[in-house]
């Protein structure tokens, strides 16, 4: 099978195309022929070695495809089923062995590109608005990098819950995308001061919740944009990881909450991953949630996808076609 392999941490050049033996299906596993592998920002952190990884490893956590072999102890799946998963390392490949407990079935009528996009970024946006903080009608939320993969989904999910989105983006084209996704207000954080603008837009009040996957560059502005007792969801560091922080500042700034979540902890409960997938697929089928595929690349061009994502040239979901 064809796969991308990383032998040592580094830049995009460490993503090389290799031929690997077809893996043997274990009793609780499924062998899946991939239709799409999802590209996510975490793939970059892992490739760079910011998150420690085995060596060598096949990158990619997210994928969708068709089951070609079913493990002897697996029930409820058959050859030919369409499945998708948000978190199974080794997904940049033509074939992937995945634990049956780590996949969801793709319902009829949902295309495999959408199914892939709905996994890591979709479930992340879902837990951020429904579990980490339950967005309510009337809330005002600040969403950074709102034209990105998670960002566009957050805009849609927050606005559909009757709350107002203040979005940050770095270009005019991205501003239009964020508005189409449901953002009521745009801040160009490449040229405007975020906290000042947020105070102007909220009559000095600040926002109930900040969703920040940008990290280092936005951290201070995010904190300063919150309302008293507001919630700061720091869920990534696309601009760099945030340095250690003085917790006393939270008291001085209005008894704020800060959390640093990760998807794995929000799909760990019994049935939790399936519940999120069901809600996401249902919203999509009802025409209430759009998955914007920003670009597709051949599997062999994974390095180009990483370069584009890190250079802020992309919007929406990036997919590799094995
Ligand atoms: P995006 O599509 O959002 O791409 C990242 C965006 O971040 C860019 O397009 C850019 O938008 C913005 N950005 C700002 N500064 C930089 C910078 N210096 N370098 C690169 N990008 C920058 O990616 P994803 O949707 O895949 O992920 C968004 C964030 O969410 C990431 O931090 C990711 O790690 C995190 N994440 C966290 C999860 C969790 O459970 N904790 C799960 C999934 C994702 P602009 O040009 O508008 O500034």
Automatic annotation (TrEMBL):
One matching Pfam family: ADH_zinc_N
Domain Enoyl reductase (ER): from-to ranges: 10-320
UniProt keyword list: NADP, Oxidoreductase
InterPro entries: ADH-like_C (IPR013149), ADH-like_N (IPR013154), ER (IPR020843), GroES-like_sf (IPR011032), NAD(P)-bd_dom_sf (IPR036291), QOR-like (IPR047618), Quin_OxRdtase/zeta-crystal_CS (IPR002364)
GO molecular function: mRNA 3'-UTR AU-rich region binding; NADPH binding; quinone reductase (NADPH) activity; zinc ion binding
GO CC aspect terms: cytosol
Entry protein name: Unannotated protein
Species assigned in the record: freshwater metagenome
């Amino acid at each position: 099978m064809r796969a991308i392999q990383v032998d040592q941490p580094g830049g995009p050049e460490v993503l090389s195309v290799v031929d690997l033996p077809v893996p043997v299906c274990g009793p609780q596993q499924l062998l899946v022929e991939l239709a799409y592998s999802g590209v996510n920002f975490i793939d970059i952190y892992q490739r760079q070695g910011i998150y420690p990884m085995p060596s060598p490893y096949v990158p990619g956590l997210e994928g969708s495809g068709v089951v070609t072999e079913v493990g002897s102890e697996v029930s409820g799946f058959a050859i030919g089923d369409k499945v998708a998963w948000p978190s199974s390392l080794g997904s940049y490949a033509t074939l992937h062995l995945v634990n049956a407990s780590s996949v969801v079935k793709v319902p009829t009528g949902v295309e495999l590109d959408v199914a892939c996009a709905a996994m890591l970024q979709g479930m992340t946006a879902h837990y951020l608005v429904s579990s980490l903080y339950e967005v309510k009608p009337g809330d005002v939320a600040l969403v950074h990098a709102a034209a990105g993969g998670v960002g566009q989904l957050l805009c849609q999910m927050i606005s559909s819950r009757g709350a107002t989105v203040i979005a940050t983006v770095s270009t005019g084209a991205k501003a239009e995308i964020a508005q189409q996704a449901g953002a009521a207000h745009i801040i160009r954080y490449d040229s405007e001061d975020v906290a000042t603008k947020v105070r102007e837009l909220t009559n000095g009040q600040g926002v109930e919740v900040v969703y920040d996957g940008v990290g280092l560059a936005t951290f201070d502005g995010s904190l300063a944009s919150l309302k008293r007792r507001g919630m700061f969801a720091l869920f990534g560091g696309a601009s760099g990881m945030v340095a250690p922080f003085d917790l006393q500042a939270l008291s001085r700034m209005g008894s704020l909450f800060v959390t640093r979540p990760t998807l794995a902890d929000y799909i760990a409960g019994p049935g939790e991953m399936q519940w999120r997938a069901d809600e996401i697929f249902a919203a999509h089928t009802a025409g209430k949630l759009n998955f914007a595929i920003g670009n597709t690349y051949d599997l062999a061009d994974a390095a180009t996808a990483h370069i584009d994502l890190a250079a802020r040239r992309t919007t929406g979901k990036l997919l590799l076609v094995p």
